[in-house]
Each structure stands twice: as structure tokens, then as C-alpha cells.
Specification:
single chain, mainly alpha, 20 helices, globular
Length: about 475
């Protein structure tokens, strides 16, 4: 139980940094959408290039984050040597990648449709190379349980990024240029590296080639898993300008990229949970009640993501002002994208059976299958249904990966998940969401918000009645006994 409380504590810290950080980052969404009109397609450029950045980050880290946790927790390995070897490997790969981009900058820029703006490409390449290097440094903070430092640096980056964006786009009399988005991001990313100068001294430990071979044998399936996973999140944004070329494609992608930001509260919860859960799982795998803990973790994760879904959908009339009204036509994808994010979070929780049993190849199989489904849906249906196909492609891809992981996991690492309770919460969420649909159809703005609030409170009341009686809650529990 103490370990579960530690998980909850770390999740709160990581969660605050993630949620507060994402919330602050939301300031950039109205800034960009109000400064860059939907008709210009400029936000489509930002969406497209950041999708490439996310994909490249997975390639350049090649599974070393998870591999670092696994090997640093092995009794026969030296954690310092594991850290230095992982850091050297990612540094070498990232530096080689950036040099190759510089050498072939013109053909790369032209092939991506940015031949007139090669600076976008080299800026993106350098930023992602630094990000990959930092990923291992941040992983070490998580391994050492330095959640406060981790959260502080993440928030510092976001506050600095927002401040400079406001200065450039609002205060200074400069022409609005999409490229400024990428230049500012590069500066802030490089600045954060300065806070790791002491940690980087571990590079003096050198590079252990035999250890690297062992680590690579573990990490390559995770790389495939990561590629498939990130493609599930970014393939639609990469494929859209290809399937629908021209300015109209960029306009539609910009609308889709903007409205998806509203659904990203689900990604915040998943990310916060992951930051705390990954080192926790590898550290507690030897405990007798570890499977019971995993089952509880899954249940509460699903409960609170469903609550987040209802909150976002219940207050969408307010949240839509995050983006400029010219983008509102895309709001219909929000519930679909949020459903896909829930499935992604469930799949992530299920994924630990093959990580703790060193059967990471299964992760590559599941994510590969899900990715293939997502790409097929996008290629087949984007020409006819536009970004709606992108949203449903995510549901199909994550749904396939989630189901495959669950059923195969029952054979190799069975966990007794409370399926009846989970299905009960899913059913209740569906019923309440239908109520919100009816309130949107028949009620005006204020009565609709009141009705939706009552529906959300009904869900919270059910949680408190069934799984979190007030008497068991910390701090306030004594007042209910």
C-alpha cells in the first residue's frame, strides 16, 4: 500500500507539471490561431512539422528511456554505467542525424513541401536532436525519484516558451511569421540543457560496448513499438498534406490540429500517469502483490479519464474559445479523439506485461497492427471524409492494439483486472454523454451548462459511493467518519 501511495504522490507531481504545463501551453493555441488565420494554412504547417518532430524523437531515442529503467534496476548492472552508455548512444545518433539534415537540407526541404523555407527544417532537426539527448537526462531524474526537479524544468521550458512567444507575436512590431514558432522552440530547448551540465558529467564514465549490445537487444522492439505508437498519434497529420495536397489540405489540417488541442487533456493524464508508473512498475515487479496494484492502477486510470471526458464535453461551449472561431467547424472530432486517447492510455497500462517479462517484441506486433489499421483508414477515407477519417482512424488503431495486448497478455502475464467495474463506469459515461447530447440539442447555453454540471456531479457521486467513500479519503476523511 505504501508503494501505491508513492505512485499516487509522484503522479500528482508529474501530473501538476504536465497539466499546468499543458494549460499554460494552451495560451499558445489562441495566440497562434488568432494571429494565424485558418484560411492561411499557417497552423497546418505548424501541425505538420511538429508531427514529424514527434516521430523523429522516437527514432533518435530508439527505446533508450524504457531500456535505461530496465537495466538500471537490474542487480547485475551498474546504474551509472547504464546511464552513461545510454546518454552517449543517444548523443551520437542525434548528432549524426543533424549533420545529415544539414548536408541534404535542400532536397529534404523540397520533398516535404518547404523548399522556400529550409530554415524550418534545420531548426526542427536541431531542436529534436537536443530533445532526444534531454530525454535520457530527464529519464535519469525519474529513476532517481527527483520528481520536483523534473517538473520544475518542464514548467520552466513552457513559461519561457510562452513568454518569448507573447513578446514576439504581441509586443514587438514584427511581421507574423510561422518560422518564429520553430526558432523560439529551439532557443528554449537549448536553454534547458544548461540545467543538466552537472548531470552530463556522467559522460566521463564512458561508453560500454558489451552493455550497449545487451541494451539494444532489449530496446529494438521498443523502438518499433514506439514508432508504431507515435505514428498512431502523428500519421494523420503527416499523411494529410500528402493525401490532400495544396493550400486547402493545409487549411483543413490546421483546423484539425487546432481542435485536437482541446482533447489533449486526456493526453495530459496519460502522460502524468506514465511518468510515475514506468519507474514504479520496474521497481516493484518483484513484490508479491504487484499484479493487484496494476489492476487497481488500471481501474482508477480509466475512472478519471472518463471523468475528464465528461468534463471536457460538458464544458465544450467554454473550452472552444481556446481557439479562434474560424476553427470551430472541427469541434465535432473532439469526443472521437478523446475516446482514442483513452484507448491509448489503456493500451499503455496493458503494455507492462511484455516489458516486465522481457517480451517486448509483442509490443512491436500490437502497435504495428494498430498503426497499420490507422494508416489504412486515413489513406482510404481522408479523400472523402477529411479530418473525420483522422479521428476515427485513431479509435480504430488504438482499439486494435488495446484488444490484442489484453488477450495475448492473459496467456503470458495474467492480471485480474476488475472488468465488471470498468464496464460499469464506461456504460455510465455513455449514458451521461447521451444526456449531454440531448442538452446541446434542446437547451440554450446557460441551462445547458447547468444540466451538464449536474451530469458530471452525478458521475463524481457514483465514484465516491462505489470506490472512494469520503471516509477513506486523506485529510477530509476524518470529517465523514
Amino acid at each position: 500500500m505504501a508503494d501505491f501511495k508513492a505512485l499516487a504522490k509522484d503522479t500528482v507531481i508529474y501530473g501538476l507539471s504536465s497539466i499546468v504545463g499543458r494549460f499554460l501551453n494552451y495560451l499558445l493555441v489562441p495566440l497562434y490561431t488568432y494571429k494565424i488565420s485558418a484560411e492561411s494554412g499557417g497552423y497546418g504547417v505548424v501541425t505538420n512539422l511538429y508531427a514529424y518532430t514527434a516521430l523523429l524523437l522516437v527514432l533518435l531515442t530508439f527505446g533508450m528511456e524504457t531500456t535505461f529503467f530496465r537495466f538500471a534496476n537490474k542487480e547485475e548492472e551498474n546504474p551509472r554505467k547504464v546511464f552513461s552508455t545510454a546518454l552517449w548512444s543517444v548523443l551520437g545518433v542525434s548528432a549524426a542525424f543533424f549533420l545529415l539534415v544539414l548536408v541534404f537540407l535542400k532536397p529534404i526541404s523540397s520533398s516535404m513541401g518547404y523548399g522556400d523555407h529550409p530554415s524550418y527544417i534545420w531548426t526542427m532537426a536541431l531542436t529534436v536532436a537536443i530533445d532526444a539527448f534531454q530525454a535520457i537526462l530527464f529519464s535519469n531524474l525519474r529513476y532517481r525519484k527527483q520528481a520536483v526537479k523534473f517538473a520544475s524544468l518542464k514548467l520552466l521550458f513552457i513559461i519561457l516558451n510562452i513568454s518569448i512567444n507573447l513578446l514576439v507575436f504581441v509586443v514587438l512590431p514584427v511581421k507574423v511569421d510561422v518560422g518564429n514558432v520553430f526558432y523560439i522552440n529551439l532557443f528554449c530547448t537549448a536553454f534547458i540543457t544548461l540545467f543538466f551540465l552537472k548531470d552530463m558529467q556522467i559522460l566521463r564514465e564512458g561508453f560500454d560496448k558489451p552493455l550497449m549490445k545487451r541494451m539494444l537487444s532489449y530496446s529494438w522492439p521498443i523502438l518499433i513499438l514506439g514508432l508504431a505508437g507515435i505514428l498512431n498519434q502523428t500519421a494523420d497529420k503527416i499523411l494529410y498534406p500528402i493525401v490532400c495536397p495544396g493550400e486547402e489540405g493545409k487549411v483543413q489540417l490546421g483546423i484539425y490540429g487546432a481542435v485536437v488541442k482541446i482533447a489533449m487533456i486526456m493526453a495530459m493524464i496519460t502522460q502524468a500517469f506514465r511518468y510515475a508508473y514506468e519507474p514504479f512498475v520496474f521497481g516493484s515487479v518483484k513484490e508479491k502483490d504487484s499484479k493487484e496494484t496494476y489492476a487497481k492502477g488500471m481501474k482508477y486510470f480509466i475512472i478519471f479519464t472518463l471523468l475528464a471526458f465528461l468534463v471536457v464535453m460538458g464544458y465544450l461551449d467554454i473550452l472552444r474559445y481556446i481557439i479562434q472561431p474560424g476553427y470551430w467547424e472541427g469541434l465535432k472530432v473532439v469526443p472521437i479523439v478523446m475516446s482514442a486517447e483513452i484507448m491509448m492510455g489503456v493500451y499503455f497500462n496493458l503494455s507492462f506485461w511484455y516489458k516486465v517479462t522481457d517480451r517486448t517484441i509483442w509490443g512491436a506486433v500490437f502497435s504495428g497492427a494498430g498503426c497499420a489499421v490507422l494508416i489504412a483508414v486515413n489513406l482510404l477515407f481522408i479523400p472523402k471524409y477529411g479530418y473525420m477519417a483522422c479521428a476515427w482512424g485513431g479509435v480504430a488503431g488504438y482499439g486494435v492494439a488495446m484488444l490484442l495486448s489484453y488477450f495475448v497478455g492473459r496467456k503470458y502475464y495474467p492480471v485480474n483486472y476488475p472488468l465488471k467495474d470498468i464496464f460499469l463506469y464506461v456504460l455510465l459515461t455513455a449514458v451521461l454523454y447521451v444526456g449531454m447530447i440531448f442538452s446541446a440539442k434542446y437547451l440554450s447555453a446557460v441551462p445547458r451548462l447547468v444540466a451538464n454540471t449536474l451530469l458530471i456531479l452525478a458521475f463524481v457521486a457514483f465514484i465516491l459511493w462505489k470506490d472512494l467513500p469520503p471516509g477513506r479519503l486523506p485529510l477530509i476523511g476524518k470529517y465523514f467518519r
